[in-house]
Amino acid sequence: PYMIHGSLRAQLLYPHREDDTQDDEISAALQAANQDELLLRVDEDLAQSADWANILSVGEQQRLSFARLCLKKPLIAFLDEATSALDSHTEKEIQENLKEVSTGRTTLVIAHRLSTIVEADQILVIDGGEVVVGSHPDWLTFTPDSQFVYVANGGSDDVSVFHGLTDDEGR
Known about the structure:
By secondary structure, the chain is of the alpha+beta class. The protein has seven helices and nine strands. Helix 2 crosses helix 5.
């Protein structure tokens, strides 16, 4: 995630420097991103400046970016490996809140972990630069050796394996 040097408020409102967002809205966004402890780390001083890229772990940066999403609620959001540095429990909490933030909006999620995309309305599997399947997640399954597969033709024996996708345990 992109982190700017500056106040926590500026970090959360990026790229907009001037904004009338209230402190309670920022606090709610941080809570939705499972990042409310960050307020305690800065003594609830949103004006406190820091080099956030060097202070926050990658997982904390991802959650802070999610807080930005909660504040701005854009009509279209692109999330590229947005939860890759999160543990499965935290990711699940973020995913639950993402459902609410994404309601009535378009959210494009790029992910390798199945747990990140399993709730999607549509899932596209891309192999070699080509969309090889696009559907509702009913076709998702795992082989005995835990490789993610899709089953073509509604459950037939015609199975293609995509090694880049993993289940929520990183297999």
